[in-house]
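This follows on from our talk about sequence and fold. I would like you to pick a protein and set down its sequence and fold. Go ahead and set the record down below:
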Amino acid sequence: MYILDTLQEITFYRLGLMLKTIGNIVFIIVPIIIMLFCIGDVITIVFKPEEAKPQIKTVVDRIIAGLIIFILPTIIGYAMTLVEGYDKNTILKYYEGASKQKIESLQLQYQQEEKAEINRKEAEYKEAARLNEEQEKKRRESAEEMFNDYKNSKNNNSNNGSNNNGTTNNNTDTNYQGDTTSSGNYGKVTVSNGVFTIPNKRATSDADIPKQSGQYGLNPIFWERLNKFIQAGSQAGHKITVSSGWRSYSSQRRLWDTSSRPCSTRSKWVACPGGSRHGFGIAADLKFNGNGCAKGTWNCNSAAKWAHDNAGRFGLKFRMSWEPWHIEPAQVNGGSFGSCNVKC
């Protein structure tokens, strides 16, 4: 029996109980009232013989009225048999079977059915969530595999450009525009011969990772590379824009605290506060022709494909295959922070 059927049963039994209660009251009170009136009429006939004739007629009328009341259910029952679709057994079921105990039993049954329905829906939702998670995992793995194949092909091409003494020439592209020689100290970041070094200690406050002088608060050397990269993309007909640059410690902490990701995988998608390369000013999130690209889809459009194909020419790289929008300097040392010490 479905929940709605149980509710319908309860309603019909309540109606039957109400009619039964009204019927019992009528069949008890009406005879008593008629009897009292008849006793009064008899007394009148005995003590006032001159009024006997009309009183006798009144007594007869009252007796007839009482009989009609008693046979009224029979008359109604016969009339109902003339109605198309009438089911006597159903009427008797809800009228004669109606009781408080029956209604309470059905109410308990309804509560049990409702609980079972809730449990069933929860199980369906959990199963759907599990299937979605599995599909997302497969898509991510497929995207990572595709991206790794792409990187391997790029590495193979680079190996093909090795010089005669067996060392690899990273600048075989004559159009190479990355700055690999700049040096300087910028907050917590040191740049030496184009190699960026960040400390092995997490930041613990906004003061530890101040905003840098490059646009979007980025490290100026990193920004110089990124800007050349963006301009070259524009000249090639691709619109590449920065959606997020430097990020303060407090901003990263808010992202961490408000993330819906489970603790077991959160650090993959949101850097633990104090360790994000955004905070050190050497990471940016990009959009390609206005599209951030879905997770793991580095070639979602022509601008994204161009960016991933040409980042190396500017001393840049997309370090995380599952975040195709996240770009950093090609060479970064340090950043051994250990496990995250911020609770979820």
